[in-house]
Amino acid sequence: MQTSSSEDLRSPQSRNPPIRPGKSPSPIQSHRQSFTESLRGHPPSPRAARQPSLSQAQLQELLNNPPTAGTADPKFSGRDWQTIGVGELCDPADLRWVEFDTGIEDATNLLINSGAHVLLVRHRKDERAAHATYDYRDLTQYLLFATGQLQPDEEHLPVFTSLAKKAQAGHTIPLRDAKSLGNKEPFMTLPSTANLTHAIEVFGGGVHRIVIVEEGTDNVVGILSQLRLVKFLWENGRNFPIIDRLYPHTIKDLGIGSQQTICINGDKALKEALKLMNNEGLTSLAVVDNHLNVVGNISNVDVKLLTRSSSAPLLDNTCIHFISVILSTRGMNEGKDSFPVFHVNPYSTLAHTVAKLVATKAHRSVAWLGPSPPGIYTLTNRN
Asked: 296-310 pLDDT, tens per residue?
């Protein structure tokens, strides 16, 4: 899914200028399709003509028997998992930095091309203290404002007006201004000596990642995400008997998972899905058909496919169409079929569920039983 920086958010002088803050286009100003365009239709998905990389039997085997946990790290043997410091799970090599004065286009290019899920934002290049983050949720919100799908409240209206004038004049829009729009996830930090129990309490409040700093300073040493914590507890479960004893139980018996699910019909416009994700603070959203069968998933990371101005029409197209774009792009970039929904059922064990979340690097797994609406099992529910 990687895209080259030369094709992403381009400068105002390029052939396809990037999406800039402005008003929603009126029907009168919208492009009228020619007779040839109206007959052309949308190109079919390459999946229809490509042989699957896995047979149905092989796919079912993968779904039924996800990869097992790897070898436990001996340095954690005999320790109480609750007393392990959050700094022990972090890797400074994961850190990617930008400054508040960095342009939104340059920051987005770095976010996409580096493969990172988040950038740390600082005031100066020689600084090791982070004051904010920039991730795909921020990008989603910016694109919604830029295309007129979101309107600023009275408090943010002067900032939005200023950004619109900068964009119309072809000026660079710095992160400082872009991040001042709309709602933001709380910026949470913990000292590296804080234990995992403290981190789980923070994650339980809906925070997706925590910036880890040196004890007594603001210098960043790493980032702890929900997925990294779950992966650690899964791979090292044998070192922690109290956790290992939970894995054989079913998710139904443990009473985890949300029954109040938020999803969207595949016939709805993509812009409605993105607005729903933004308003509800979701990182991904299940896409269902008229019978509530899950047919796909849209995540904030997929917004990278919308960063070119030529992709703007996708916002008015359906969620189902965008899923076909996601799958086609993955197929071309990775050379294999991609399956957007990995599911479990209420009688799947916790080990089975967590193994799938870790193996697929998903933040959610969908579970259902019979005709009932699906339940969503998230990393936060794994506390």
From this structure: 889 899 999 998 888
* Residue 328 pLDDT exceeds 50: yes
Helix H, strand E, coil C: the string for the chain is CCCCCCCCCCCCCCCCCCCCCCCCCCCCCCCCCCHHHHHHCCCCCHHHHCCCCCCHHHHHHHHHCCCCCCCCCHHHCCCCHHHCEHHHHCCHHHCCEEECCCEHHHHHHHHHHHCCCEEEEECCCCCCECCEEEEHHHHHHHHHHHCCCCCCCCCCHHHHHHHHHHHHCCCCCEHHHHCCCCCCCCCCEEECCCEHHHHHHHHCCCCCEEEEECCCCCEEEEEEEHHHHHHHHHHCHHHCHHHHCCCCCEHHHHCCCECCCCEEECCCEHHHHHHHHHHHCCCEEEEECCCCCEEEEEEHHHHHHHCCHHHHHHHHCEHHHHHHHHHHHHHHHHCCCCCCCCEECCCCEHHHHHHHHHHHCCCEEEECCCCCCCEEEECHHHC
CA-CA distance, 154 to 328, in Å (whole number)?
41
User: Which of 22, 25, 24, 20 is CA-nearest to residue 10?
Assistant: 20
Average pLDDT, the chain: 78
Instruction: Tell which wins on pLDDT, 48 or 282.
Output: 282
Please indicate, yes or no, whether the overall pTM of this predicted structure exceeds 0.90.
Answer: no
Q: Are 275 and 149 contacting, i.e. CB atoms less than 8 angstroms apart?
A: yes
